[in-house]
């Protein structure tokens, strides 16, 4: 979505830099350039994002600050929020496909099929990751981690800007 399109949204549905309006605290903000930024957030199938419950309280505060600052669609925001609806659609579809690939009679084949699907969803295309990459990544749990750790192109895109 381009900048002009975002300007057409009602303020409640704007997000990212179009919503924060110049506010910024570098000590609290979770930057997408941080190598482990995805660990700060937890995604619900409803499309809502919240601080990961496994974080220390100071990191939960950073995650909440970032969610609120950028209007990313936390549990306190309106459920019709544009990002919540888009994220929910992607998470529901990803979850549906994963469940279809599960075959309790052949767990090895299921694991391989889910790994292939994870590679499709998590690998970069033209040096760009899919929309809502970290939400997709979370859906794949250990398989997603395995793909990211073993697929060179994903590592380069995800962690190329690490400090």
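-> sequence recovered:
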């Amino acid at each position: 979505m381009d900048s002009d399109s975002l300007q057409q949204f009602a303020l409640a549905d704007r997000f990212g830099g179009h919503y924060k309006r110049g506010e910024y605290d570098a000590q609290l903000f979770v930057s997408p350039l941080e190598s482990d930024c995805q660990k700060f957030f937890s995604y619900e199938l409803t499309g809502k994002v919240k601080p990961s419950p496994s974080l220390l309280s100071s990191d939960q505060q950073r995650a909440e600050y970032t969610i609120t600052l950028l209007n990313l669609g936390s549990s306190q925001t309106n459920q019709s929020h544009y990002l919540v609806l888009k994220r929910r659609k992607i998470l529901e579809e990803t979850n549906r496909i994963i469940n279809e690939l599960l075959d309790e009679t052949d767990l090895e084949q299921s694991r391989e099929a889910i790994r292939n699907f994870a590679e499709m969803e998590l690998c970069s295309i033209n040096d760009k990751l899919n929309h809502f990459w970290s939400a997709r990544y979370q859906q794949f749990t250990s398989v997603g981690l395995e793909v990211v750790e073993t697929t060179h192109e994903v590592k380069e895109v995800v962690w190329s800007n690490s400090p």
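The two ends are 28 Å apart (CA to CA).
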